[in-house]
Amino acid sequence: MRLSRTLAALFITASILSPMLYADIVITKDDMILNGKILEDKKPAHIIFANYHGTFTIKYSVIKKIHRSESFAEDITLLNDMGKQVNEAEIKKNYIAGEKKLEKLLLKEEKKKPAAIRDTGSFILMFDLFYDKNFGELKSVLPYSAGAALSAEFPVDLFKKYHLYGIDSEITFYFSSNDDRSIKGLNTSAGPLWQIPVTIYNYNLCFNISALMGAGWYTVKNDEAAKATSSAKWNLAVHAGPVFRLGSAVISTQLRLDYIHDGTAPMKGSGLTIGAGYAF
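Below the sequence we write its predicted structure tokens.
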């Protein structure tokens, strides 16, 4: 579809937005010359063109040639070489207007990205609460468990390959009780943290997966023992779920698997963790 003669008269020195902040000259098949910047290049369909007078879509089917240049001064030289009479002040005005439109567009696109995507180098401190349904041999004795954790995420640039974000670590208070039976303890653990960018209903967020291993001191009480016994045990935990960022605030809801090793009857549970924190 051919551009109208009215547009040709209006935009003979028009500006085009370019992602590299370069000037451009577009020559259409009806020999209209547009000077300025390209905002978006959707080749082979069209380009998005903007200048002092507005923003427009120009199909590739009406474009004869596109010249790339690094400033409006080069556009003036190129137009003079073509034998065209130009208004240098108009070319500069349109170029500057186009440049400002591009900067606003880039800023708008950047703001659409959540902080978790834009800033992947933050130290994050979280407070989490979790609730598990136990399974395995002790399920009938201690059907449920709960606890709280103070966790910290440490970004490590060396581990950024394959979405390996860094190290996840936590200090956890674990508690399970039923009648006269209970197990409680405090443990520390750490392990690798994977961070995978995902999009859900046009909202960008991160899906975190972490696998932690550590040890703690646990106190066990049952109705057959005269008193509670305490001992050290090693533990495993796996977390997986979405993480939301709003500025420096962090909110997460994750599935959780817990395992506390015991030679006689290990504790096993799965449940949900809800946490909130701050990115430094």
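The chain is about 15% helix and 55% strand.
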